[in-house]
Amino acid sequence: MVNHLWKNSTNVKGELDALVYRSNLLGFDRSVCNYGGGNTSVKTKELDFNGKEVDVIWVKGSGADLADAQQKHFTALRMQDITLLKERETMSDEQMVNYLTNCKMDHSHPRFSIETLLHAFLPFKHVDHTHPDSIISICCADNGEEVATELFGDRYVWVPYIRPGFDLSKMIWEKVAANRNAEFVLMEKHGLVTWGESAKECYDQTIAVIQKAEIFLERETSSHPFGDVVVNSISDDERNEMLQAILPVVRGCVKENKRNLIVTHDESEEVLDFVNRERAPLLSQIGAACLITLSIQRGHHCLSNGILQQKRCRN
Ligand SMILES: [Zn+2]
Description:
single chain, alpha+beta, 38% helix, globular, disordered C terminus, binds zinc ion
């Protein structure tokens, strides 16, 4: 279960500091956000180059990891210019990036996230966008929207999968504006968007939604997601003997492909448990969790956290 880690005693000075603290807490737990994925933001007022106070959004820079993000990993952009984009029908990635580059408060700030407009269009001070395992379990299911409605009623907005960029950001803004009860967004095959008037309120909401989804999944999936154990692990000695026989063959295959690869092996308890189970041959070949579709059914298999964490889109 994802833990609520916020400590009121933490010495946080100012909005940007609070954004960094919140981001680090979210990134600390990889079942909340994968490495390099997700992004956070806060809207503040800053002085521009002329000493004039302007509305600004601070958003995580592209490629930074939430877990160890510092102030220098966030980019400030002028809201007045960004708000004008709401009038546009569509925009290519290239047009969007060029436009937003001109909105930067300081050209030394890092390149902004491709999901910047998702944050900027929403009329809330603090916004979190994460890729939580439990939420993606629901958002990747072919009956995900049905499950979400049963779980959250009309407190959420569902958006179908489209690539991150202008169109997705505009769709999220319009759908949220159309639902007065909306408290968060579930993005099909992608993740979660939450918000709050304070950094803590935003964090509270992210964790609360994830925990509710986790409790639901635990309750509704009684059988093991990887199936029954169908083979038993061999002894350490036998395994080492087998590795010595197999690894030179693997090395030969890699060499034939003329690719520079480093091969490692993992015989941790979790891996052995996975490979011994009935569904391992199928699940190990499925690939990115974002691209697969499974049903969540009462008492039946559901995609579990272990697989989801392996491969995830980083936006
Ligand atoms: Zn994302």
